[in-house]
Amino acid sequence: MIQDNKKKNTLIIGLIVIFAIILIRLFNIQIIDKEYKINAGNNALKYVTRYPARGLILDRNNEVLVGNKIIYDITVTPVEVLPFDTVAFCKIFDIDTSFVKEKFREYKKYRSRVGYQTLTFLKHISNEQYNQFIEKSADFVGFSGVPRTARSYPFNAGANLIGYVSEVDGDYIKKNPGYRGGDYAGKTGIEETCEEYLRGEKGHSIFLRDSRNRIVSHYENGEYDVSPVEGKNIVSTIDGRLQQYGEALMKNKVGSLVAIEPSTGEILTLVSSPGIDVSILAEISKHYNEIASDPYKPMYNRAVMSPQPPGSVFKIVNGLIGLQEGVLTPSTHYSCSQGYKAGNVKLGCHVHKSPVDFYESIMMSCNAYYCYVLRNILDNPKYENIGEAMDKWNEYVKSFGFGTKLGSDFPSEQSGFIPNSNYYNKIYGKKGWRSLTVISLSIGQGEIGSTPLHLANFAATMANRGYYYTPHIVKESENVEIDPKYKIKNYTMVDTTYFEEAVIGMYRAVNSPPGTGGTATIAAVEGLDICGKTGTAQNPHGDDHSVFICFAPKDNPKIAVAAYVENGGFGATWAAPIASLLVEQYLNGEISPERKYIEDRILSSSLMHKVKVKKRR
After folding, report:
1. Cβ distance 458 to 317 under 8 Å?
2. Which end of the chain is more exposed for a tag (fewer CB within 10 A), N or C?
3. Dist CA 549 CA 262 (whole Å)
4. d(Cα 565, Cα 583) in Å, to the nearest integer?
């Protein structure tokens, strides 16, 4: 009996303790803990989002590429709206009454989903319209004017690499739960890459409603308001003025111009032409259909998204592999009788002296020379069969970065394509092909696809004599610590000693005396020691593409460039002068008087008529 009483007393005491805990907890929640009262679901309170200023985007010299300006949106909380003069409202904003009626029909249809939310009603109204609205805001209960920042572009350059900011949609919100309707995010370029730094953190102000949903006062004198946190500034690797000049050189041409600092992998310019005009970036949604329907595809960033045949610049890759494999030496001579002939295969070449050694083969861009080189690589008796040799060749080429995504921090980078034995086995059968079948690979044709970024990276690899830093467009700064991978040297599978031999040929291609056969002498600039290689990439759909890679100076290089001009013909006609002008501008700060005629020709010429595009009706 005594034991039963003890159990009973223990149970009673336990219940009293639990009840006391519950009472204390309820007291804290309802009386003391204001956090319960101010949760976002409390219908007595109205939350007004305060948007942060987005971080600035600076160039490598701290000039502002992308800044901010104040704009105004009109928001609406449908449950608070009282009858108003629709005509007067529309007159302020120069809109049709049907727009307003349609909006409210939509709010009524989805009223359970809308609830007490505040929604964006009009975007980017003018200062004049905003001021008119504020003067008459008492007549439009439920509507508010909200200041926020939008992008401004003090530098008229770099639209495609900067990217644009636009309002998030449902799909974006699903993938990024931290965003809500009415928020903006970077969608392309640096704006997308650095969204987490640039966006900042939203704040809010809390207001108290009365029983009729009208705003009565600031809740608790703003004690629980949260100030927005500005986004962090980003320093890009881009040289704004060089980017501007590069875009001028590529105006009225289709193609790309990419420059890299070899010692760091930092991208100095990244031009895709034709591109988006900077003036429309801030309001790109208004122009989106016009841009999207442009047959020249200005939103398509050719620099990182357009794998094309590299043409004769790729001969250097094959030459280096040949040197490494021991099937070639710098003194190896091969003859050329305006091309290479073997059986039923003929691959043409321009007229030049014959025979030529390795240095002259680069200097004169001899096709026949590299047909011999590739065949010696693929028919090397140390491999059991051509498939094994082809896969080793593929491995060599990919070590230069070709056929892979380089790992740049720039979005939408494409990998291009480098074929292997499996590729040809599927087409011809395992024993149905040989070195002559794939002979076009010797001169950078056939199935090879590389982007201009790949070519610029290759130029940087040549400048560094055998290694490259992964190209990147965001510079390490106080606000941003870049990925350690951008500081690692990526060595090719070719011994660094062989690169110096190829550089000699590249130097002679640009700096050989007139009449000696250098294909890129138009790119020579006194005192800069530019080393380069021309390319003419065959194009079955029209004129050939003009290609050129280079770096300068020869020793301790400061810049590596790739120019790709679609339908531009010979590499020396357009790509070489464009690339050399960019180099000269970067290293000297100006174009010398004796080369002004070249600059004038490039700036005033249009090649748009040569590019075949499908125009929409």
Report:
1. yes
2. C
3. 13
4. 17
Per-domain boundaries in the chain? 45-81+114-235, 240-476+485-610
Per-residue confidence (pLDDT) for residue 204, from 0 to 100: 86
Average pLDDT over residues 50-75: 92
**579 confidence band (pLDDT: 50, 70, 90):** very high
CATH 3.40.190.10 fits 240-476+485-610, yes or no: no
Cβ proximity of 548 and 510 under 8 Å = no
- Dig out the tokens for 31 from the structure: 């009386």
Instruction: State the Cα angle at 242 between 241 and 246, rounded to 5°.
Output: 120
First-to-last alpha carbon distance for the chain, in angstroms, is 99
Reported as a single tens digit per residue, the pLDDT across 332-352 is: 999 998 999 998 889 999 999
What is the rounded average pLDDT of the residues 15-43? 58
Q: 463: pLDDT confidence band, cut at 50, 70 and 90?
A: very high
Torsion of CA 7, 11, 17, 19, to 10 degrees: -170
Supply the DSSP string of 136-174, one letter for each residue.
Answer: TGGGSTTEEEEEEEEEE-SSS--HHHH--EEE--HHHHH
Helix (H) / strand (E) containing 127 = helix 127-135
Could you tell me how many residues make up the chain?
Answer: 617
Query: What's the CA gap between 71 and 282, in Å, rounded?
Result: 11
Q: For residue 39, what pLDDT is reported? A: 54
Task: Tell me the pTM.
Answer: 0.86
Cβ atoms of residues 406 and 457 within 8 Å? yes
Residue-wise pLDDT for 42-57, tens only, equals: 557 777 788 899 999 9
Query: HSE-up of 91 (CA within 13 Å, CB side)?
Result: 7
Higher local confidence (pLDDT), 180 or 47: 180
Asked if residues 376 and 328 have their Cβ atoms less than 8 Å apart, the reply is yes
Across 378-388, average pLDDT: 96
* Cα atoms in the Cβ-side hemisphere of radius 13 Å centred on 568: 31
Q: How far apart are CA 76 and CA 144, in angstroms?
A: 6
Angstrom distance (rounded) from CA 301 to CA 254: 11
**Separation between Cα atoms, residue 511 and residue 520, nearest integer Å:** 8
What would be the CATH architecture of the domain defined by 45-81+114-235? Alpha-Beta Complex (3.90)
Residue 115: per-residue pLDDT: 83
